[in-house]
Amino acid sequence: MPRPTAAFFDLDKTIIAKSSTLAFSREFQAGGLISRRAMLRSAYAQFVFFTGGADHDQMDKMRQFMSQLCAGWDVATVREIVHDTLTNIVEPLVYEEAVRLMDEHRAEGRDIVIVSASGAEVVEPIGQMLGADRVVATRMEIVEGKYTGNIDYYAYAEEKARAIERLAETVGYDLAASYAYSDSITDVHMLEVVGHPFAVNPDRELRRIALAKEWPVLSFVRPVALRPRVPLPPARPTLAALAVGGAMAAGGVMWANRRKRLT
Fold first, then answer.
1. What is the DSSP letter of 5?
2. What is the pTM (predicted TM-score) of this model?
3. pLDDT tens across 74-91, in order?
4. Would 22 be classed as within a structural domain?
5. Coil, helix or strand for 187?
6. Catalytic annotation, pick one of 12, 111, 187, 203
7. Rounded distance between C-alpha atoms, residue 71 and residue 79, angstroms
8. 187 among known catalytic residues
9. Where is 147: in which H helix or E strand?
10. The domain containing residue 112 runs over which residues?
11. Are 156 and 58 in contact (CB under 8 A)?
12. Are 162 and 180 in contact (CB under 8 A)?
């Protein structure tokens, strides 16, 4: 019997057209979770990331900043904000090309797996909307109903590749016959563990590597209003990881550059 195969997808700029954190920053600010200054700084930082990319050191500095920012957030408040706004915010941002590609893989009998540094409470509902079979995402620590600012599990960079390899051991995936899609140089390890890697809307460094390794480069440009394929479940109590994963991954350059100017 042939072994099962899968198609692994990053989330931001691969499935949806912007950073998941940028999409929610206004709602977080309106709900009293972040200040207007923090919201504007995050928005600008993510713009810089999308136009220039960021290295691992810059990403780690932003992770530390964002983990401190969300410390003390009330879980119930976060759940309410996400539950009330998730569909309206995320649904219009899904790339039509990504949806079609998932349908093609599904028709070929492959599992669809979303692997993202963003929080599980956002990634999992999006995965259900899209009919994904599995989700790998960041999880934050919760104590007495509040986020501590610590990370229980961080699905980023090399850890994405390790998570895929663990899934292959558990499920039996044939990685040599599997596919992976991402936009970021930080996901090069994830792309290297499968037999069919694809760079989607790649940043400058990933484009350079993709061309050198002769990986196909795809351009997704058509966000569509996607009606959910299944009802969204109640948000899970790990949304703060969205700030640590999504905002960090999208905002490293501006924050790090500002630190350099101040030191």
1. -
2. 0.80
3. 877 877 777 777 777 777
4. yes
5. helix
6. 12
7. 15
8. no
9. strand 146-153
10. 6-262
11. no
12. no
Domain count, the chain: 1
**Which residue among 10, 111, 183, 187 is the active-site one?**
10
Identity of the amino acid at 251: G
Residue 1 lies in a domain: no
What distance separates the 2 farthest-apart alpha carbons in the chain? 61
The conformation of residue 133, written as its DSSP 8-state character, comes to: S
In a domain, 141, yes or no: yes
Token pair 């640590």 in the structure block, residue: 244
Instruction: Express each pLDDT in 115-160 by its tens digit.
Output: 998 888 778 878 888 899 999 999 889 899 998 988 899 999 999 9
79 in a structural domain: yes
For residue 193, give the CATH number of its domain.
3.40.50.1000
Beta strands 223-224 and 217-218 are unpaired
N-term to C-term CA, the chain = 60
Active site residue 10: yes
- The closest of 11, 13, 216, 30 to 125, measured between CA atoms, is 11
